[in-house]
Automatic annotation (TrEMBL):
Signal sequence bounds: none
The organism of origin for this protein: Enterocloster bolteae (strain ATCC BAA-613 / DSM 15670 / CCUG 46953 / JCM 12243 / WAL 16351)
GO biological process: NADP+ biosynthetic process
MF-aspect GO terms: ATP binding; NAD binding; NAD+ kinase activity
Protein name, UniProt field: ATP-NAD kinase
Family annotation (Pfam families): NAD_kinase, NAD_kinase_C
């Protein structure tokens, strides 16, 4: 029987849909809640834990009170036990309390002391740093992706992939581990359009590349010619159909498109374009949904995260499952240079919208525009 430690950072990713580009810090959390943000980390963790039910007899789950794990285990119908050192938490704090990095670190340390074989945690890059500070490489871990910005290579590709990998682990089919990078960025600079990523250390994760995501990478100079011709082509398509609302996603490639058209843009935010004019900058999910009520004919333009392959669910949570549902999958354009696609080494593109139905809608082969009338067919999975 495998002993699993399970931790949820319930406020991870809360700033994503409201356009805050992160969730670190009490002030960011306060602002996110003021903007109407709803915690989603628990729902993503639940998607993972439900998959473990068939192997429940092979797992002994140790977790934390309330929204740090216990609530999710109950919803998934799983047997569990509270880590000894955390039992007092439920007596002094409500189940819905907002947790801190210290809570995550304390929980990881207590679970490690109880002799768990692996720690499964839900969060983002900040949470990974907390786990790193608590346990280092002393014990294997696996992250359930629930944050806004997930640069670190310690997370499963999706919550579903995390569950599938844990089933393999319970069956004794995970034999090898590797040290994977824990990366994080300065969120204050990130909100100014500057991506300053830093390596904080390494965590030990299962060496299962099918299930665990790669480290996020940046763009190389060799992509410039491809991007230039692609921008020319896409801009002409937009000019030919000005009656559509264009929802332009995050990233340097989409920023290049907007710059080519002479439009102001938010490098790390979502912008709205209608009849040749920018009508919304750095938009939240609610901003986009409001625009869709006024302009129901819409198209989404997104790019691929280099090194990882995500098109939805990483850094562009503002383009939520509900936004995608309203726009329709036929009105989504993915743009990327050939170099970026080829750098994925034949791996499929990835999605993680947090909605099973929308994830299924997006799967399959799609065209990726890589140049002037140049298209590559790419497989999308979740």
């Amino acid at each position: 029987m495998k002993k699993i430690g399970f931790i949820v950072n319930p406020v991870a990713g809360i700033g994503g849909k409201v356009g805050l580009k992160g969730s670190d810090g009490t002030q960011t959390l306060k602002k996110a809640l003021e903007l109407g943000a709803v915690p989603e980390a628990g729902a993503k963790a639940l998607g993972t834990m439900k998959l473990l039910k068939p192997m429940e007899q092979q797992l002994e789950i140790h977790t934390c009170p309330g929204n740090m794990g216990e609530d999710i285990c109950k919803q998934a119908g799983l047997n569990y036990r509270l880590a000894e050192g955390t039992k007092a938490w439920s007596q002094c704090s409500p189940s819905s309390r907002n947790t801190t990095p210290k809570d995550t670190m304390d929980a990881a340390g207590m679970l490690c002391n109880e002799g768990v074989d692996l720690i499964l945690f839900a969060g983002g890059d900040g949470t990974a740093r907390n786990i790193l500070d608590a346990v280092g490489t002393s014990i294997p871990v696996l992250g359930i992706p629930a944050g806004c910005k997930i640069h670190s290579a310690v997370y499963a590709r999706t919550p579903r992939a995390a569950g599938e990998l844990m089933l393999r682990y319970a069956e004794g089919r995970v034999m090898e581990y590797r040290e994977a990078e824990v990366m994080d960025i300065d969120e204050n600079l990130f909100r100014q359009g500057i991506c300053d990523a830093r390596l904080y250390g390494y965590l030990k994760v299962p060496n299962e590349k099918k299930f665990v995501q790669n480290l996020k990478s940046g763009r190389g100079c060799s992509e410039d010619a491809s991007i230039q011709s692609m921008c020319m082509y896409v801009s002409r398509l937009i000019e030919q159909e000005p009656e559509y609302l264009y929802i332009v996603g995050t990233g340097s490639t989409t920023a290049r498109l907007m710059n080519y058209m002479g439009k102001p843009n938010t490098l790390l935010g979502v912008d709205l374009l209608f009849q040749g004019q920018v009508i919304g900058s750095d938009c939240t999910e609610q901003d986009i949904l409001a625009a869709l009520k006024k302009y129901p004919r819409a198209k989404i333009i997104v790019t691929v995260i280099g090194g990882q392959g995500y098109i939805f669910g990483r850094g562009n949570q503002q383009i939520s499952a509900e936004v995608i549902r309203r726009v329709g999958t036929k009105n989504i354009m993915v743009i990327a240079s050939r170099d970026k696609i080829f750098s994925l080494g034949g791996n499929p593109l990835l999605i993680d919208t947090g909605d099973e139905e929308v994830n299924r809608m997006l799967t399959g082969y799609i065209p990726v525009t890589t140049g002037y009338k140049d298209v590559i067919m790419a497989n999308v999975i979740y």
